[in-house]
UniProtKB/TrEMBL annotation:
InterPro entries associated with the record: AI-2E-like (IPR002549)
UniProt keyword Membrane present: yes
Keywords (A to Z) from UniProt: Membrane, Transmembrane, Transmembrane helix
Protein name (record): AI-2E family transporter
Record's subcellular location: Membrane
Bilayer topology: Multi-pass membrane protein
A GO CC term assigned to this protein in UniProt: membrane
Source organism of the structure: Lactobacillus xujianguonis
Pfam families from the UniProt entry: AI-2E_transport (PF01594)
Length: 345
């Protein structure tokens, strides 16, 4: 029995496969806390990255000062969003709904609604209203849960980054432990892999989303579209979805564009989104993602499809980075990467 245990610890690939399964099972058991876990990782990664960037150019600035100033700015930003931006956003979303309502009224939709109501039973209407109320209740509950998870993540990431040196020193003690040294070595191995793939890809997608949002808002401003701030926020959130996000944003933008300027505006928006998508595909993705994923578009959409089914909205954002992490763990590299490696050698 002891020899079998020693052979198991010496068999690194088998050992790491078992540890990876344990980690996946552990995260599955904590799936109700997944919002907090993912947001904590994202905040921590971005702040640690910022600390290292600042200290690279100004090494004498202490970590605690950088972290404190960063979180004070975050709190001020949250205060601004809640007190100033949210009321403005609600007002702009209300205007959007009014624009859509005007679109339906101007295209003889009331007559069509009366025609449909004639053939739809009162019981069916009541059922749909109940379903709508249920969806609204779940939406409000989800928003409340996400708000709590966001604040908890900010607190956890703050305490991690404010004591970054102490955290690294204390965490290294687990790797030096006796009986479970091999286990924590493998956990550390996967942690570094996860940070180097998931974090970097997510950061790249974040910068791509900022570029897409800026270009879209410039185009909407040129077209004199209303509610640019609300539309910009929507485009930014959708742009966090790799490849598909920019295309998905075409649907609501086209509806609002038609209500403002008719078919001509729909064509303008379609051309604008296609140009932005081309910039993302041929300029931004090669610049930010070239050495990160190298995934064909088919695989990207396939991963998004399954990830959305497994993790909902979060799957659309983290699906590709997690898939890239698994490829890195399995040491699966694209032909282009291998070719580049041979050329450099």
């Amino acid at each position: 029995m002891q020899n079998a245990w020693q052979r198991f610890k010496a068999n690194v690939p088998l050992r790491r496969a078992v540890v990876l399964m344990i980690i996946i099972l552990f995260l599955y058991k904590l799936r109700s806390m997944m919002n907090t876990i993912l947001l904590t990782f994202i905040f921590t990664y971005l702040v640690v990255h910022l600390v290292r960037l600042v200290q690279k150019h100004a090494p004498k600035i202490p970590t605690g000062l950088i972290v404190s100033v960063t979180y004070i700015l975050i709190l001020l930003l949250l205060y601004f969003v809640i007190t100033v931006y949210m009321p403005m956003l609600v007002g702009e979303i209300t205007k959007i709904f009014k624009s859509v309502k005007a679109f339906y009224e101007s295209n003889n939709m009331p007559g069509m609604m009366k025609y449909l109501k004639h053939y739809v039973s009162q019981a069916e209407i009541t059922k749909q209203v109940k379903n709508g109320m249920t969806i609204m209740f779940h939406t409000l509950t989800s928003v409340g849960t996400l708000t709590v998870a966001t604040f908890m993540s900010l607190i956890l990431s703050f305490f991690y980054t404010i004591e970054l040196k102490q955290m690294n020193e204390f965490s290294s003690l687990f790797v030096k432990s006796g009986i479970f040294k091999w286990f924590f070595e493998d956990v550390s191995f996967f942690g570094k892999k996860f940070t180097n793939t998931f974090g970097v890809v997510l950061e790249a997608q974040f910068f791509i989303a900022i570029c897409n949002t800026a270009l879209t808002m410039i185009g909407l401003a040129i077209m004199r579209m209303p509610q640019i701030v609300a539309l910009g926020l929507m485009v930014f959130i959708l742009s966090l979805i790799p490849v598909a996000g920019v295309i998905i944003s075409l649907i609501p933008l086209s509806v609002i564009g038609y209500s403002v300027g008719g078919l001509r505006y729909v064509i303008y928006i379609f051309v604008m989104i296609m140009i932005i998508h081309a910039i993302e595909a041929y300029i931004l993705n090669p610049k930010f993602m070239a050495s990160k994923t190298e995934l064909p578009i088919f695989y990207t959409f396939l991963v998004l499809l399954f990830a959305e089914h497994l993790w909902g909205t979060w799957g659309l954002i983290v699906g590709v980075p997690i898939f890239t992490f698994l490829l890195d763990v399995m040491e699966i590299k694209s032909a282009r990467k291998k070719k580049q490696k041979k050329v450099t050698q």
